[in-house]
Amino acid sequence: MMLLWIVITVLLNIVLCFISIMFLKNDMKQDSNESFECGMETFFNFNSFYCLHFFLIGVLFLVFDMEIIICIPMIFLNLEMIKMLLYWSLMMIVLIVGYYLELAIGTLNWKE
Q1: What span, in angstroms and rounded, lies between the C-alpha atoms of 17 and 10?
Q2: Are the beta carbons of 95 and 67 closer than 8 angstroms?
Q3: Transmembrane ranges (predicted)?
Q4: What three-state secondary structure class fits 78?
Q5: What DSSP line would sit under 23-70, residue for residue?
Q6: Is there a contact between 83 and 77 (Cβ–Cβ < 8 Å)?
Q7: Are 56 and 108 a contacting pair, CB within 8 Å?
Q8: What is the pLDDT of residues 16-33, one digit of tens each?
Q9: Which of 27, 44, 86, 87 is deepest in the core (most CB within 10 A)?
Q10: First to last CA, the chain
């Protein structure tokens, strides 16, 4: 059964590669020869700056979301009560310390 699954997966990948090669266009434009990071030639000079405050808020939400994702599987584990209490205490300490660090840095201050 496992061998059949591997064979089907490999064949499907080969078929998809051939289909993508068949529909590939070789339409080379001026922007295609340059690196993707350079972007396209623009007619106007756009000097808009990205607000660092919104970036820091995004990182803050990512950190707290990852900690929540780490906490969810612990609900379904059968651990002894003392181990569970230690784990949740450690997670709450990390969350509280992270929150106070964000307050100290000033990331949560919206009056800029």
Answers
A1: 11
A2: yes
A3: 52-77, 84-101
A4: coil
A5: T------GGGGS-GGG----SS---PPPPHHHHHHHHHHHHHHHHHHH
A6: no
A7: no
A8: 989 888 887 665 555 555
A9: 87
A10: 62
